[in-house]
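#dry-run=false #mode=assembly
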Amino acid sequence: MSYILVVDDNFDNRHIIGQMLQFSGFTVELVADAHSAIQIARQRRPGLILMDLSMPGLDGWTATEYVRRDPELHSIPVVAVSGHVTRNDIERAKRAGCVEFLAKPIDYEHLIEVARRYTGQASRSSSHTS
Amino acid sequence: MRFPIRVKLLGALAIDLLLMMILGVFAMHQMAVMNERAVFIERHTIPSLDTVGDMTAAINRYRARQLEFLIYTNNGDRARILDQMRVIETEMTGYVQAYRALVDSESERRQLNAVEAAWHEVVRANHERFIPAVRLVSDGSVQPFYSRMNPVYATLDREMNLLVQENQQQARASLDVVASSYATARTFILFDTAVAIIISAAIGLFLSARIARRLRRLAHASNRVAAGDFVGSINERTRDEIGDLARAFDQMLSSLRAQRAELEERNRALQESLSRQAQLMEEIVRGKQAEAEAERARAAAEAASQAKSAFLATMSHELRTPLNAILGYAQLLHLSKAVSEPHDAYLERILSSGRHLLTLISDVLDFARIEQGALELEYRQVAIAPLVEDVATMTLPLAQRNHNQVITHYPADIGTIETDDRRLRQVLINLLGNAAKFTERGTIQLNVVREQRHGIDGVRFDVIDTGIGIPRDKQDKLFKPFSQIDESVTRRYEGTGLGLALSKQIVLALGGTIDVESDFGVGSTFTVWLPTAPLAAADSTSLPPQPHLIGEPA
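#status=ok
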């Protein structure tokens, strides 16, 4: 099973995402800030990072950009998870290097579909929902 | 009168001069006549009368010698007296000759001859009869001899008298001529002078009156012009100096008129331009004020809008965070199957309510964005058939809850449309969702056809339901925010009241139209028409430039 790193400063959010992923068989590690996330990523090389954007300290956009530029980490896909859902927010996340944008509140099925897509596990469906 | 005034005046003067000259010539002539008569009297009548006097005296002396011849009887005295007689005879002959030289008429000559003849008769009687008779008688009785001389002397006296009369006659005739010449000259001079005066006066008065009248007309016209009245003209037709002046005046007047007309025209144009300018200024000032006001209002609105925007974004995010927790844990509970029936149904209600809340939050946010004109559109080519199938499929659960059928209908070659995929889906889902909510045990159709409107290629989407319908008087309020047809409906059917208003704004932003046709209790048809490609005219940058004419009526 792939190993997924979940970064979110909000306990409920990271807990829910973690539980949903674990329920679907993923191995997850939950981190509350971007600094720790980058350190852990260096040590354990996750298959996917789910990154909250708006966080105190190092924010998700900057952290994603860092991951994209770091030669050791740049192969790891980063998916943004945010309650900021305007087109601008989404654009900004894509510019920072996020491969996908998941809007909060998290829809279980959508989350699993995206996780499977980027960790290389067979996905149940490729159908697109809005 | 076609002559210059100078000629007229000279003409008048010439007439006077002519009259004067005639007068002069005539007076000279008359004077010559009188002079001639005077000379005649001086050279002829006066010497003639003198001579006649001398002759009379000589005759008297002759008679006296005869008497002496009678009285003196001695021969010595008689011889002396006889000598004296002969001297007188010679004297007399000289007088007759002197007179003869003065004779100038035939009657006078005859009379002189008669006198001479009578004188010769006296001399002959003296020498042939008197003296011889007296010599014969020496006793002193000589009286009869002297008496016998009386008839001869009487004849001589008579002839002498006739000669004197002749002379007097001549003198009187000359005097008559002089008197008549004088009378004629006087009459003529009086008449001529009178005529000259009358002609001069007539010409002078006429000319001066005429000139004065014409000058007065000119002066009057000048005063009128000076007072600013350029109307009318003098119309003087006479060709003299005043006529020239009048014509020059008329010309000046017409030139003045033309100038004034031009001036007035220019003045009017100037006034017009001034008033236009004033109007322009006023409009510019008003425009500036309005602009400034609009700018202030816009700035205020923008500030408010930005504040609102920021507030909405924050609210949206802040609402999503707890909602995420609610929906997340509910999903986890559902997944873990830790909750058994009937409590699992409660979880479903939590999830569906949470999702509904999420839709509401999205709608409110979208609507706020549209109100601020901040709706971002992302055009791309969208295949219509899959899109229709997608939205129909997504509506299906909601439709089935009310036991409705969902039917789609479109030509196989319906093709693509260049539009914002996400927004079009949003509109269609909203319309289909409404149809599903307000219809029970009926059908919901989604028909799609290509349709040209106003020469523009487009696609028409009809969402047709067999639901409760919308009363006609409520239809126009339908697309306004927060206006579901009544509160009971709102309570029965979930909805923000924002869906249709939002759909309409989105369709308009995409350059299309949205309409409704509905019979209350029978069903409703919502029609969305969108252009197959974004309209150039819908792009504000390619709109024809707004006429920016200052002074154009608003």
